[in-house]
Structure formats: structure tokens, C-alpha cells
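Collaborator request, handled under Task 6.
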Amino acid sequence: MKKTAIAILLSTFVAAPAIAADEGFYVGADVGRSSTNYSDLSSKTGTAFSVLGGYQFMKYLAAEIQYNDFGSIKDTGGTSYKINGYSGAAVGIFPFNDQWSLLGKLGYASTKLGNPANTTKSGITYGIGGQYNINQAWGVRLNYDMYKVVIPAPTSQTATTSVVSAGVVYKF
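C-alpha cells returned to the collaborator:
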């Protein structure tokens, strides 16, 4: 009985670092291209960037908060609108091995279409991506994410902004 208890205790200490490697805080940044699907725009794409922070609870689940800058779009009249927003999402992680993982995001975002319109839209955001872990601290990501925005009057219709981005994450 004593040997069994010692073996269980030792195996817990040996397995703890492997479990701990799947948990913890991380930060990151992405840069890419955004595209807004609305017919009355003369310029639908922009340079997008984001900064994010997250916590990985276990090997398969994390939570992220993110600030997004989607760049600018122009309507047919030549007026330029800046799009940005905040989001929070649950991130499902499917690791293929120690280096490669598939990521799926589902969350809630609030986007703002800036001056002169100043309209906001809140709703579901989602995305898919992949991550390559260079080592235990650094990873490289490729993402495809979708967000809702409101196009200003006279239509006040909802449009979708999609973002293809690449970035890095650092895990503490």
C-alpha cells in the first residue's frame, strides 16, 4: 500500500509539468486584410490588426479578449469610415501534436463604424485558424474571422467584415 501511494504521488509530480504546459495566460498580435461585403462601397478592404489576451484553461479550451482595428472602407460618395471593435470568445483547440493545433472561435463582438457615422453593432463573432508552436512560449497563428458591422443611413443595414490574418502569441 505504501509503495502504491508513493508511486501515485511521484506520477503526479511527473505529470504536473505536462498538464501545466497546457494552461496559462497568453498575449498576441495579428495583422492581415479585412473585407466588408456590402454592395454600395467603393473600397471594401483594409489593413487589419489586433491585439489579444487570453487564458488557456486546459489543452482543449481557452478564452480570449481582443481589440480589432479593421482599417477603413469608403462608400460610393467617397466618405471614408474607420471600423474597429472589441470581442470576447471561447477558443476550442484541437491539437494534432505538440506543434500544430486547429483553433475554432465563437464569441461576442461590438464593432464601431467611425466618423462621420458612429454606428455600433454587437453580435456573434466566429472564426477558424491554426497555430504552430515554435516552443512552449511562442506560437504563430493564421486566422479567418467574421464580424458584423452596421452600414450607416440611409440603409442602416448589417454587413459582414471578414479578416484573414497572421500573428504571434506568447504564453507566460
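The cover message to the collaborator said: "Residues 2-20 form the longest helix (19 residues). Confidence is low (pLDDT under 50) at residues 12-20. Please let us know whether this matches your experimental observations."
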